[in-house]
């Protein structure tokens, strides 16, 4: 799917896969991509999940908003069902 693409092409293909999903999955996928691209170090999946569970303007973690690893991978375009 991304074979033969340069970094810009891979990034564009990832954005396209995320946007194809629509709705909540797109919002989650884009938020995950923002965290990943702006972090100062590599994030573990559990760290990324916890970061996504903090609502904008809040300093508290909402445990009910922590996405599962499967949901996170699917919404970020990193995994697809066949």
What does this structure look like?
There is one protein chain. This protein is an all-alpha fold. It has one domain (7-75). Helices cover 56% and strands 0% of the residues. It is built from four helices and no strands. It has helices at residues 7-21, 23-38, 45-52, 69-75. Helix 1 (7-21) packs antiparallel against helix 2 (23-38) and helix 2 packs across helix 3. It is globular. The protein starts with 6 loop residues before the first helix and ends in a 7-residue tail after the last helix. The mean pLDDT is 85.
SS strand fraction:
under 5%
Q: Give the termini separation.
A: 14 Å
- List low-confidence stretches: none
Order of helices and strands: HHHH
Largest sheet: none
- Share of helix among residues? 55-70%
Number of domains: 1
How big is the Rg?
Answer: 13 Å
- Number of helical segments with 4 or more residues: 4
């Amino acid at each position: 799917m991304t074979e033969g693409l340069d970094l810009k092409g891979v990034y564009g293909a990832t954005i396209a896969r995320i946007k194809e999903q629509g709705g909540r999955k797109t919002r989650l996928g884009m938020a995950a991509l923002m965290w990943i691209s702006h972090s100062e170090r590599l994030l573990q999946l559990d760290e990324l999940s916890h970061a996504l569970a903090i609502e904008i303007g809040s300093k508290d973690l909402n445990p009910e908003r922590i996405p599962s690893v499967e949901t996170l991978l699917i919404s970020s375009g990193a995994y697809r069902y066949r």
